[in-house]
Amino acid sequence: MNDPQNRSDKDRQARRRGRSSAPPRIEPLAVLPIFMKLHGRRVIVTGGDAPSAWKAELVRAAGAAVTVYAAEVGEEMEALAERPEQSGFGTLEIVRRAWALDDLANAALLIGDAATDGEAWALKCAGQAAGVPVNVIDKPSWCQFQFSTIVNRSPVVIAISTDGAAPIVGQAVRQRVEAVLGPALGAWAKLAERIRPTVNERLAIGPERRSFWQAFAARVFGPAPEERMEDDLVSEIESIRTERPRATISLVGMGQASGGEVTGLTLGALGALQSADCILHVEETPSAILELGRREAERRVIGLDGDLLQAILRAVAGRTEAGQSVAVLLPGNPVSQWPELATALEDIARSSGLSNNNPPAIADSSFGSGEAYVKALLEHSGGRNDRP
C-alpha cells in the first residue's frame, strides 16, 4: 500500500532535482543593457568637437539638461546649441572653458572627450570622486558605461551592443532590425501606455492581463492604430473580465536543435514558449531555446523514461486549472516521435465535452484546454490528481 506521505516526499525530492539540474535562464552577458531616465537630469559633456556634439545630441534627445564645457567649440556643437526648444527634448548650454571637479555636482552622467590616456584617467577619477558614471568617447577601457547602437521607435527603444568587439556587426544588426520593424510601432507603444492604467485597474494579474497584451502585441507590426482603436481595446478588456481564463497546454517540438541552435523552432513553437507560465523540458534542451521563454516562467526538467503522459499531467494539473499556460518542449517532432502520447491527448480532447465553449484546438501539435480538459486527462489516466 502506498503511503501518501512518502509519495509526497518523493515528489518534492524530484522537483528539487529538476530545479537543480535545470540550466540557467540566461547565458552570460558581456554587458547589462540598462535604460536610464534622463528627463530633466543634468548631464555633463566635455569637449566641443563632432563626437562630443553627437553624444550631447543623443542625451538631449532623451530629455537631459546638457551642459557642455569646452574652450573651443566646433560648428556641429554650435548648431546644436542654436536649435529651438522642442517638446520631448532636453536643453543644451555651452560653457566656454575647461571643466572642473565642482562642475560635476548633481550630475547624472559625465561624457568626456580625451585626447590622451592622462586626460581619460582624470575624467574617470573625477567621475568616481563625484559618484557620476563616466563615458570617455572612443576609449572603452576607461568607460564605466557604453553607448549602444539604437533603433528608435520611441517609446520602443532597442539597444544593440557588441561590447566594443565589432561595431560593424552592431550596425548590421541594426539594419536588419530596422527593416523588420514597421514605422507604426511607436504609435502602438504610445497607445499601450495610454491604455495600461485601464488594463491594470480592470484585469487581474496573470492570465487575464497576459491574454489582453498578447492580443495587443499581435497587432503592432501592422498598420498604425485607428482613432477608434482605444475604444475597441476597452471593449476587449470588458470581454476578458467576463470570460473564464483559458489555459493552454502546448506540445512543442524543437526540431533537431542541438549545440545551442534554435533554427528548428517554428513561429508557433516560439509563440507557445513566450506565452507559457511553465515550460517542461528534457535535460538536454539547449539553453538558447529555453531563453526564448518568458524570464519569469518556471522551467522544469522532465525525463523521457517512464510514463511521459503521467509526468506531464502531474506537472500541469494545478496550473491549467488556474488558467495558466504550459509548454511541453520535446526534441524533434513530438507528434511523430511519441505518437502514443499525441494520440492519447487527441482522444481525451475529443471526449472532454469542451466543444460547446472552449473546444480543444488540435493543430500544429498545440492543444487548447480549460479546467475540464485537464480533469479529463486525469480521469483518462486513472482518476488521480497528483499535484506537483
UniProtKB/TrEMBL annotation:
Gene3D superfamilies: Cobalt-precorrin-4 Transmethylase, Domain 1, NAD(P)-binding Rossmann-like Domain, Siroheme synthase, domain 2. This is precorrin-2 dehydrogenase. It comes from Notoacmeibacter ruber. It holds the Pfam family CysG_dimeriser. NCBIfam families: cysG_Nterm. GO terms for biological process: siroheme biosynthetic process. Keywords: NAD, Oxidoreductase, Porphyrin biosynthesis. Pathway: Porphyrin-containing compound metabolism; siroheme biosynthesis; sirohydrochlorin from precorrin-2: step 1/1. Residues 184-221 form the Sirohaem synthase dimerisation domain. InterPro entries: 4pyrrol_Methylase_sf, 4pyrrole_Mease_sub1, Met8-like, NAD(P)-bd_dom_sf, Sirohaem_synthase_dimer_dom, Sirohaem_synthase_N. One of its GO terms (molecular function) is precorrin-2 dehydrogenase activity. Coiled coil: none annotated. Its EC number is 1.3.1.76. It catalyses: precorrin-2 + NAD(+) = sirohydrochlorin + NADH + 2 H(+). Residues 1-12 have a biased composition (Basic and acidic residues). It is an enzyme of class 1 (oxidoreductase). Residues 1-24 are annotated as: Disordered.
